[in-house]
Structure formats: structure tokens, C-alpha cells
Amino acid sequence: MIIKQLSETLINQIAAGEVIERPASAAKELIENAIDAGATRIEVATAGGGKTLLRVIDNGCGMGPEDLALAIRRHCTSKLSETLFDIRSLGFRGEALPSIGSVAKLTITSRPAGADSGAEIAVVGGKVGDVRPAAANPGTTVEVRDLFFATPARLKFMKTEKAEAGAISEIVKRMAIAFPAIRFVLSGTDRSTLEFPGTGDDHLARIAQVLGADFKDNAIELDAEREDVRLTGFAGVPTFNRGNSAHQYAFVNGRPVQDKQILSAIRGAYAETIPQGRYPVAVLSLTLDPALVDVNVHPAKSDVRFRDPALVRGLIVGAIRQSLQREGDRAATTGAGGMLRAFRPGFSPQPAQAWSPASSPSRPLYGAAPSFGGGFAAAAAPAAHGFGEAAQAVFDSLTVPTARSEPIPSPAPQSASVEAIASYPLGAARAQVHANYIVAQTEDGLVIVDQHAAHERLVFEQMRKALTGRRLPSQGLLIPEIVDLPEEDCDRLMTHATSLEHLGLAIERFGPGAIAVRETPAMLGEMDATQLVRDLADEIAEWDTADRLSAKLEHVAATMACHGSVRSGRRLRVEEMNALLRQMEQTPGSGQCNHGRPTYVELKLSDIERLFGRS
User: Fold this and answer.
1) Cα-atom radius of gyration of the chain, to the nearest Å?
2) What is the CA 86 to chain-centroid distance, rounded?
3) Alpha-carbon distance 328 to 596, whole Å?
4) pLDDT attached to residue 409
5) Phi and psi of 201, rounded to 5°?
6) I need a labelling partner for 395 at 20 to 30 A (CA). Which of 62, 172, 245, 506 fits?
7) What mean pLDDT is predicted for residues 585-611?
């Protein structure tokens, strides 16, 4: 075996395989260069999904002839100091341009501000041409043609032109959100143009340009700080959700990232508020000392590594949950829009029928119908659904109204006028429709409430409060369960032993490579303690948290709350309906049930008038 030095062209092509995976990767690198150059206007043009043509034009600082000659050489950059601990630019490796030039036909034309003329250099399949004078506007134009023509095997792995164009569009959107003061223009062969005018310091206006105007009406502002790590941005209300995670954007010191830890934190923050298979909409921006985050993890610079990942995760989860408790109970405006689309003006009358007792309504429309017991009663006791005795004890210890208790007193006196009660956010109950939906009148519209979903959330929040306020009941094992684990996993588990014991899971060290489980949470009944401990060890190793056990307990609480809440089909008195509305107004998270579905929708008076053509 003879070891030899690889050629410069082959080295660049190998690097291109890491840095330039597809046309969108090249677009990302070129846009980052334009932003680092101080551009305020960036235009991107593509053909063939970026495989045939990718052109990026900016009005940045530009480059002179000497800089052009160095720019296409590997590891030549103006953005990096002597260390990797203070990276404040998007690019810093000096690999993008030589990598692109090694697999494509690359032309760079640039003119510094104040220069009389510009210069141009071309690289074709790794072969570098001479720098020559060229007519150019101030700034830089980078043109990439026939991407991967020098490595045709890579072309086989490209997706369709439409898919590749969509990936470039997504890159432009992420950059546009990160830098709202810059004007972005994207054009393609289909003659469609995507344009984001600069919005200056109005970050929400730029986000609305990218995510749609609805986000602006359904966003909650975030601004939190913990130990010199600051989180800003916007989180959508839980009922404003999507079918995939493509509408979650994260930025670290202005750099767009797709970090799995941040995405996991977003998912954890919205737990129990969004239906399974749906995803929240969020735009998060983390700002911290560059020395506390490593951006040199992946060639594409899309992943980062935090020095204290638990701190970052806790900041994200805590900030989003606090914001949701503060103002996340409101219904998404898109719900009212869907309701409006569902209404059909006019109707086709049916043939008249002779009246008979059988054809008359068998039940009243309004909530003043006779009640079947005081308060909001469960149709069946939780014990009937297989919960353990300890779980039943937790349920019974709550101040949740049941068929055995007195009605919940309403904050508003029953003698108060409808107009006075209507001043509350959820208004005054006026009717119960189909023995399931409460119709309430507000000062500027009406609200329709799903009584079962709403009360389910109220019961669950009371149970959750009880779970976190004391040590949970546990059941001792006659014979301790011994779980064999690597020594490092045992060490991690024991660091969280106190927290786990508060949740009813008592563990002890059993030699260097084993954990003894002596008690398990009584709420979980019979369970696989070994698998639970292994799952916790895996979670702690990856995230340095032990949330899985809490999630299991909350799942039991949510199921109990579902069975222990007022059922669909239950007739409610007017005072009961008003009491439910007042409790919803006082309970965080009451805008959606435990399964993430909305508990109410709101229709403004202006929307109703529009239905009748009065506005």
C-alpha cells in the first residue's frame, strides 16, 4: 500500500459531498456569504430546480481582484479569527466556493463599493481561470451552472425539479425570517416570484410575510432569559397548528438551525395541548455568548451543540408554557374562518308535513332544561375504568365537582343581567345546543363551547396541580426489581433519584452496574419497571432530563379527567353553564382539551354581519 497526497480537485470534490448535498445547500452557502458581506438586498434566480442554474446577486461590500483569487481557494476566509470560540458570522470555514467550483461551472463577478470597475473569475470542474476585468454593479453576483456535472453520480440522487426548487424556497424563507431588514427576491423558471420586502425591526411583520397573515393574529410573543441565554420570538396558540413540523423555525445567534434538541423542547412545551399528529407553529431565536455554543458540528452548519443543553431546553419549555398560560387560551382565528366557510346562506324548504306529537321536538333547545344532579357530574366513576386505588385517591382528593358535590358557585351572581355577565371574556350562556354545545353571548360576538372538552381540561388541570404539589403515592415491591445497566447510565439515574422519588419511583444503586427498583408509582398500577428505568436512562443520556415518568403520570391523569368530566349529552342549567365558562377563564390551558382539540370557537359580530351581507 502506497500513501499519496490527493489532488486539490479531488479534495474539493470530497468536501463538496459534505458541504453541497443539493442545490439548496449551495443556495444556503451563497446567501450566507451575501449576508456576511452586509447586503440589504439579495436576489436568487433558479432554473431546473437549481441544478441547471443558481444565481445569487447581492449589494454587499463586494470583492476586489486579489480577494476573488483567494475566495475560490479552500480555507480562505475573512470571517474567522484565530479560534473557533468567537464565531459571529454565518460562514467561517472557507469551503463553500471551492467546493461548488469543483463540481459545477462557477462564475463570480464582484465590484467593491467605490471602485471604478469590477472583476470576474471562473471555476469549471475544479479548473480555475484567471481574474479578468468585468462590468459589474457594486456588490457580488455568483452564478452556478450545471451543478454536479463533474460528479454525475450525484445527479442520480437528486429529487425532482419541483422538490429541489421547494427546498431552495425553504432556505430563502428561513433566511428571510432571520434577517427581516434584508429584502429577498426568489424567482424560478415557472415565472413565479417570491418576494419579501424588508421590514426593518418589525420581526413579526416579516414572519407574517413567510408564514401568512394568520400567524400574526395567533402568535404569542416570547422574551425570557436564564443565565445569560436569552430566548425571543413567537409561539402560536395551540389551536393554530399544522400537519408537519415545517413551520417550526429556530435560530441561534441569528443562524438558522434544525437542531433536534430545540425541536424536542418545542414538542415538550406543547405536550397535552396539541392533538397527536399535529405540530405547533413557532419561531424561536436564542442569543448567547458564542463561546457557549459550538456551531462547528456539521459541515452544513445546521446543527449546534450547547455547552449546557439542559439549560437551553428548560428555558424553551418554561418560556413557551408560561406564555401559553398567560394568553394561550384564546381560540385560533382560523377556527372562526372555518366556521364562516361552513355556513351556507339560504336553504331549500322541505315539503310541509302535518304536525303530530311524534314530529315535535322531544327536548328543549335551551340550557334551562331540568338538571340531572348538582354540579358537573361524571357519567361514571373513574374507578369503573380500571384505575388503581391510589389513582382513585388522587382523583377523589381533588375539588372537582361530582354528582355527590354541590354546584360550583359562579363568580357572577345569578341575578346579574345578561349584559353584565357578557362582559366576561367568554360571555353569558344563552343556550345549550344538541345537549353538548354551550352558546354564549359576548360583548362583541358569540362563543360556542364543547362542554365535555372544556370540563375535561378543567379536571385535568386540577389533577396536574395535585400531582406536582406533593409526593405521589407509591407501591412497594415485595422483591426489588434489579435492572442491569451500563455504569454511566446508573450514575445518570442516581443524579435524578430525588426527583424520581417525588414521582413515586424509588431506586437505589445495586452494585456498579445495576439499579434496584423498590417502589413504583401507584397510579401506574402493574407496570414493567425494568423497561421504565431503561427508558429513563436513555432519556437522561440524550437530554439530561427525566420527563418520561412525568409524561406517563400525566397521561393517566388525562385519561381519568376524560372519564371524570361532564359528558356529551348532559343537560346543564344556565347557572351551570355560566359556572363552567367562569372556570375556563380562570384556568390556564382551557382553550384546548387534553387531546389538543379546541374547547371553544369564537365568532365576532362583524363576522356574523358579513354572513348576512351587512358589512
Assistant:
1) 31
2) 29
3) 12
4) 41
5) -90, 0
6) 506
7) 83
What is the spatial distance between Cα 282 and Cα 328, in angstroms, rounded to a whole number? 13
Residue with cell 417550526: 248
Q: Indicate the length of the chain as a whole number.
A: 615
In the numeric block, which cell numbers belong to residue 194? 417570491
Domain range for 455 is 363-466+562-611
Residue 70 and residue 179 share a domain: yes
What CA–CA distance (Å, rounded) separates 564 from 403? 10
Among 95, 86, 112, CA closest to 30: 95
Q: How many domains does the chain have?
A: 4
Among the three residues 310, 328, 346, which one is the final residue of a domain in this structure?
328
The helix/strand/coil state of 465 is helix
Against a cut of 0.85, is the pTM above it? no
Tell me the C-alpha distance between 303 and 291, whole Å.
16
What share of the chain has pLDDT > 70, as a percent? 77
Whether residue 378 sits in one domain with residue 400: yes
The grid coordinates listed for 77 are: 476566509
Give which of 224, 437, 387, 438 is closest to 311, Cα–Cα.
Answer: 224
pLDDT per residue over 269-317, tens digit each? Answer: 888 788 778 889 999 999 999 888 888 776 667 778 898 888 999 999 9
Q: How many helices (H) and strands (E) does the chain have?
A: 20, 25
Q: What is the pLDDT of residue 365?
A: 34
Residue found under cell 445518570: 492
Cβ–Cβ under 8 Å, residues 96 and 29: yes
Q: Is residue 236 part of a domain?
A: yes
CB 301 within 8 A of CB 275: no
Name the β-bridge partners of 183.
41
Q: For residue 259, which of 300, 206, 314 has the smallest C-alpha distance? A: 300
Q: Does residue 181 sit in the same domain as residue 283?
A: no
Give whole-number Cα distances, 286 to 88, 194, 359, in Å. 14, 27, 64
Element (H, E) at 321: helix 309-327
Whether residue 525 sits in one domain with residue 455: no
Q: End-to-end distance of the chain based on CA atoms, in angstroms?
A: 84
In degrees and rounded to multiples of 5, residue 459 shows phi and psi of -65, -45
- Rounded to an integer, what distance in angstroms lies between the CA atom of residue 265 and that of residue 279? 13
Average pLDDT, integer, range 242-247:
87
Residue indicated by cell numbers 420527563: 547
**pLDDT tens-digit readout, 385-424:** 445 555 555 555 554 444 343 334 444 444 456 667 778 8
Judge if 525 and 589 occupy the same domain: no
Secondary structure class of 477 (helix, strand, coil): strand
Residues 71 and 137 in one domain: yes
What pLDDT score was predicted for residue 331?
66
Q: Exposure of 170 by Cβ count < 10 A (0-12 exposed, 13-18 middle, 19+ buried)?
A: middle
Collapse the DSSP code of 463 into the 3-class scheme (helix H, G, I; strand E, B; otherwise coil) and give the result.
Answer: helix
461 lies in the same domain as 372: yes
Q: Which amino acid is at 284?
A: L
Name 596's Cβ contacts closer than 8 Å, sequence gap at least 6: 238, 241, 272, 273, 274, 275, 276, 278
